[in-house]
Design brief:
By secondary structure, the protein is mostly helical. It has six helices and four strands. GO terms for molecular function: catalytic activity.
């Protein structure tokens, strides 16, 4: 049950990633107070409803599309990112640092809450 709660929190944070931006598994884990749980964030995103959760906007700490195999189609993750204007070269987000959205910075204003449904 605690895993389900963590997964729901991952989905809520992921839903906040702006169009055309990306973040990392580790950045989400850190924001949720579990900085050593980047893999758990990945598991959550691998099992989510990708039509309702923009999991394609979450990459590894180096900008690599490590979760691409969990999307239908060979290059769907890349195609979704590119449709948002994110350039991907050799499975890596180009200009990763400029496109990186950090939930720990962006969600600090107190209007976002991870508790509840």
């Amino acid at each position: 049950m605690a895993e389900d709660n963590f997964f729901c929190k991952v989905y809520k944070v992921t839903a906040q990633i702006p169009y055309g931006m990306v973040t990392s598994y580790g950045a989400i884990a850190k924001f949720l107070g579990a900085p050593r749980s980047a893999r758990m964030v990945g598991w959550a995103l691998n099992s989510c409803d990708k039509e309702n959760v923009p999991a394609h906007r979450v990459v590894n700490r180096n900008g690599l599309l490590t979760g691409k195999h969990h999307f239908l189609g060979t290059n769907l993750m890349q195609q979704l990112l590119e449709s948002e204007g994110v350039e991907v070269t050799e499975n890596r987000v180009k200009n990763f640092e400029q496109l990186f959205w950090d939930p720990s910075r962006e969600l600090l204003d107190g209007t976002f809450t991870i508790e509840g449904p």
